[in-house]
Every structure is written in structure tokens, then in C-alpha cells.
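User: Predict the structure for this protein chain, please.
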Amino acid sequence: MDVQPEPLRIATRGSPLARWQSDHVATLLRRSISDLSVEVVVIETEGDLDRTRPIAELAGRGVFAKEVQAAVLDGRADVAVHSAKDLMSTPTDGLVIASVLERGSATDALVGQNLNQLAEGAVIATGSVRRQAQLATLRPDLRFVGLRGNIDTRLARIGTDSGLGDGSLVAAVVSATAALERLGIADRIAQSLAPEQMLPQVAQGAVAVECRADDNDTIAALASINDLATARCVAAERAYLAELGGGCDLPVGGYAVLIDPACPEGDLLMTALLSSRDGVSSLRANGAGRIPSALGRGLALELLDAGGRELLDLDQGPDQPSS
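Assistant: Here is the predicted structure, written as C-alpha cells:
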């Protein structure tokens, strides 16, 4: 009697978007490896359980990833699927990013109204200091309120009371374009913001798959669905963020693309952003190179030397969190 192999257990958050991502990974693996059995393990994370604190207080600390990673480390699952932007910029001990899927759209989108439709002093809901700072640069008149919850909850804020005490309503919310596309609601988009208008978050639009660093069989399986071009772009962006330091809570953006899309091992072109929270002081740098880590680190050092260290020092005042 043949013994059936154990299923590959995929750990994921339980949100609709996270389930789309884990299901997509499962589909790609089944296409790549015949007779593969897959089982999804849903994990609740700190970010899912704590919906009271502003997201800016949680950003960069892996709050949407830590518990999913723990399930792999303690053997409850074999792989962890993440929105790559939710991962810490430095590797987690015992784990390796074994696969990065082909990137979806990296842009941000306005839902509700586009920039030209927004009235003077309109209220925008976003939980991201990066989005707020860049929108404030484009439209200094705009006002902002926080935003938490899944996509449906966020979109439901449009047209509701802003909470600013003046009777104003939320005119628009900001979301990742890829999230809206993957959930089949891209028709809600009023405007996709080009990277020249709003530089994306590091690794935005990409899905990363982790496994245990000593699990050679799973590493080999995940390699079969790795998209080299996306993996290299994401590596450059993550290197940029890592060089800035884990305590950086300022608005940060990074976006790398292949100079020649037909050559996945070729040179990359990357743009990096470091800004003050109000968007008044905004630093950008562009660079090209073939080695992703060197490109990302080089841009970080360039921005730090161009005034970024002063921005970081100002942000680490006595009333600011250190990480």
C-alpha cells in the first residue's frame, strides 16, 4: 500500500486578501509539482487582533507576520505566505524567503474621488504616514484621519463622518492597487497614483513565501514558483529599508524595476524616498545597478548623507517612539 506524502501546510492570515495570496501560492505549487497536497493553516496576528492603535505605531515591527512565522518555526506549518511589504527588512532567524511571486501593481490608489475632484480641505483616510506625507506634498490643503481594518471596512469609511468634529465627511481612502485588483474590486478605483506622484512602500504588490532555513525539500519546491525579476527588485528595496535601520518610523518608499524587462538578471533602476511626517522635507534619490543589495544600501546612504540623518534625529525626539 502506497503511503501518501504529508500535505504542505501553508500558514497565512485569515483576511480575504491573505487568503487570496495563500490560495494563489497553492495553485502555483500544484501546477509546478504534480500530485502535491496542500493544507492552509489560518493564523491570527497582532495586527489583526489590535485594531485600536494607529497603524503607524505598528508599522515596521512585523505585526502582520510574526505569528505566521512562528507557526512555521514551531512546526505547525511548513511555509508562511505574506504580503512582502509586511515583513521586517532584516531576515528572521531560522527562516528564509524561498520564493517571491511575480509582482502585481505596486501603485497606490484613491477610492472615492481622484485628486482633481477633491474639494479644498477634503478629508482622506489612510493609516500610512508614507501615503499621508506624499499626498500632503501633492495637495497641502488635504486633511487626514487614520484607517484600520480589512479592505471592506476601509472602503466603508468613504462618506462617513471624519471624526474631526466639524461635520466633514471622508472624501476618499487610499489603498494598494494590487489589493483591490486581487479582490476583484478594481472598479472602485478613482485614480491610480503613478510612482512619480506617490512612491510605493518597499515590496508593495509582491507576495513573499518563507520556510525553515534547513528545510531543503520545501526550499526546492518554492524555488519552482519564484519570479527572479520580482525577487531581485524586492531585495533591492528591502536592502534600502534595512540600511535606514529598524527604528525608522518616517515615511519611506522604495521602488525598483528592471531596465530591460526581458532580462531578469540585468540592471535595476530604483527610486528611494525619505520624508518628514508632514511631507515638507522630502528627499529622493535614483540609482541603477546589477547587485540588488548594493543598490538599495547605496541609495539609503545617499539619502542619509543628503539630510536623512537629521530627519531621523528630529523624529527620535522625547515624544516619539524609538522603533
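The radius of gyration is 20 Å.
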